[in-house]
Design brief:
- The protein is of the alpha+beta class and about 425 residues long.
- Helix content is about 20%, strand content about 25%.
- The strands form 4 sheets. The chain has an 11-stranded mixed sheet. Strands 2-4-3 form a 3-stranded antiparallel sheet, covered by helices on one side. Strands 17-16-18 form a 3-stranded antiparallel sheet, with no helix packed on it.
- The longest helix has 16 residues.
- The protein is globular and about 70 Å long.
- The two termini are about 15 Å apart.
Length: about 425
C-alpha cells in the first residue's frame, strides 16, 4: 500500500556561479541563504470582518492546496454509498473537532459545499498561502527573498542552505500583536531535500523554548525534491504534515497528506495527565475531575515499601474523546484516526481507548496508559521472579496501531469502513 519517498538546471547553475564570480562581495552558500533571516516581518490584518485568515480552496494547477482539502473531499461518501447513522455521526464528530472554536477543538474553520471544501480560515493555511501566492498585491517581500535565496542555494549545490526567521508577527488595525510565527526554509544537498516549516504561537517567547515549541497552536511542515522546487508559487511536495494543539492544551491534531503514499490522515489524540498546582507540583485533582485508579498497589498508597512506593490516588486526570453518546466502542477514546485511501477510494476510521498498554507481571492482565510508577512496579515484580534481565511487554492495539502479518499485510482493523469520493488527481488515474 505504501509507496517509497523519494538533473539540476544547468543554465541556472551557470548563471548563479557567474554571479558569484563577478560579485566582489562574494558570499558562501550559507551566507547567501541566511541573508535577512532575522529581519522583522509584520503582516497587517483587517479583523473587522472576522475573516482575516480566510483562504479560498482552488483546484487550479499551481494554486495553494489547503491542508485538509483533499482529505475532507475524499472522506465524503461516494454517491453509491449510504452511511449508517453511526458512521455519519462519527464523521460529523471528527469534522466538528477539527473545525470547532471551543477550547478543546482546533478551530480550522473548513467550510464545505455539496461535499467539497470551498474555504478555510485559520492562521496556518493563511500564512502558507501567503508564502505560495503569485498575487503581487499579497506577496510578502521577506518570503520572496527567502524563496529566491534557497533557489540559488540549490543551483550552487555546494553546502547547506538555511533561512530561519523567528521575527514574523501578525498585527491588527491598531498595530497590536495577534500572533507570532517562525519560518524555516532549507536545502540539504546530502539528502537532496528542500524543507519548509512554520511555527505559529500567541506568545513570541514560545518560539524560543524547546519545551513550549512542542505545544504551539500551529506547526506546518513539508519536504520537496529540489527538482520540483521553484521560487514563485506553490511547488509539489513529497511529504506534508501539520500539528495543532487545542487552546486548552488537552488535545492534539495531526494531519498527514503528502504525495509519498496514497493516504491522507487525520489523527486526534489526548492523554491522561497529572494534576498540578501553580508551581507545577503534583497534587490531588479537583473533586469534579475524573481520575484514574492506579493498577498497582505500589502506586496507590496501600503498600509501604521503603525502596519503592507512591500514592497516586486522585492525582491522574482522565482525558478522553468521543464519537458517540450511545455506543461504548466509540466513547472514552484516547486516539481517533480518519484515513483516506485515495487509490482504493476507501475511508477508514480507527479508534483506541489507550495510547499505551503493557502486560502486568502475571503476563495476562493489561494495564492501559500506565504511569512510570506502575511500569517500575511491574519491572520490580518481574525482576523478583527472574534471575535474568527483564523488560516490559508492550501491547499494540489491533484496532489502531499498524500491525503486519508474516506476509507484510496490514492486519489493523478499522471500526468503520466505507467508500469515499474518488479524486482523480490523487488516485493515480
Amino acid at each position: 500500500m505504501l509507496k517509497p519517498r523519494s538533473s539540476r538546471l544547468l543554465i541556472t547553475l551557470i548563471f548563479s556561479l557567474s554571479l558569484y564570480g563577478c560579485d566582489p562581495a562574494f558570499e558562501t552558500t550559507a551566507d547567501l541563504c541566511a541573508n535577512g533571516q532575522n529581519s522583522g516581518v509584520t503582516i497587517g490584518l483587517d479583523t473587522s470582518s472576522g475573516e482575516e485568515f480566510k483562504v479560498l480552496a482552488s483546484d487550479e494547477s499551481g494554486a495553494y492546496p489547503l491542508y485538509l482539502q483533499d482529505i475532507l473531499d475524499a472522506a465524503e461518501p461516494d454517491a453509491s454509498e449510504t452511511l449508517t447513522a453511526e458512521e455519519q455521526a462519527a464523521l460529523d464528530s471528527i469534522k466538528a473537532m477539527v473545525n470547532g472554536p471551543a477550547d478543546n477543538e482546533f478551530n480550522l474553520q473548513y467550510v464545505q459545499n455539496s461535499g467539497e471544501v470551498i474555504e478555510a480560515s485559520n492562521p496556518l493555511d493563511f500564512l502558507e498561502f501567503l508564502m505560495a501566492t503569485k498575487d503581487k498585491s499579497l506577496k510578502v517581500g521577506a518570503f520572496e527573498d527567502a524563496r529566491k535565496q534557497i533557489q540559488r542555494g540549490i543551483a550552487a549545490d555546494d553546502g547547506f542552505c538555511v533561512y530561519s526567521n523567528p521575527n514574523i508577527r501578525f498585527v491588527d488595525e491598531d498595530g497590536s500583536d495577534l500572533l507570532f510565527a517562525e519560518l524555516t526554509l532549507s536545502y540539504d544537498p546530502f539528502s537532496n531535500i528542500v524543507q519548509q516549516s512554520f511555527l505559529i504561537s500567541e506568545l513570541k517567547s514560545d518560539l524560543s523554548k524547546s519545551t513550549s515549541r512542542q505545544s504551539v497552536p500551529y506547526f506546518g511542515f513539508s519536504q520537496a525534491s529540489p527538482d520540483e522546487y521553484n521560487d514563485d508559487g506553490y511547488y509539489p511536495v513529497i511529504l506534508r504534515q501539520a500539528l495543532m494543539n487545542s487552546a486548552d492544551g488537552e488535545h492534539s491534531l495531526l494531519i498527514d497528506d503528502g504525495n509519498d503514499n496514497a493516504l491522507g490522515q487525520i489523527e486526534i489524540t489526548t492523554q491522561n495527565t497529572f494534576c498540578t498546582d501553580d508551581e507545577d507540583n503534583i497534587v490531588a485533582c479537583d473533586p469534579a475531575v475524573t481520575t484514574r485508579t492506579p493498577a498497582k498497589p505500589q502506586c496507590d498508597g496501600t503498600v509501604t515499601d521503603e525502596d519503592y512506593s507512591e500514592d497516586q490516588r486522585d492525582q491522574v486526570e482522565v482525558r478522553s474523546l468521543s464519537l458517540s453518546d450511545s455506543n461504548d466502542d466509540l466513547r472514552d477514546l484516547k486516539r481517533i484516526r480518519l484515513e483516506t485511501d485515495y487509490e482504493a477510494q476507501e475511508v477508514r476510521i480507527y479508534v483506541s481507548k489507550y495510547n499505551e498498554a503493557i502486560l502486568d507481571s502475571d503476563g495476562v492482565t493489561e494495564i492501559h496508559d500506565p504511569t512510570d510508577c506502575e511500569k517500575r512496579a511491574v519491572l520490580d515484580e518481574l525482576a523478583d521472579a527472574s534471575s535474568g534481565g527483564v523488560r516490559l511487554t508492550v501491547l499494540d492495539d489491533p484496532g489502531y496501531d499498524i500491525i503486519y502479518d508474516d506476509d507484510g499485510n496490514v492486519t489493523t482493523t478499522p471500526i468503520m469502513t466505507y467508500t469515499g469520493t474518488n479524486l482523480p488527481s490523487r488516485s493515480g488515474e
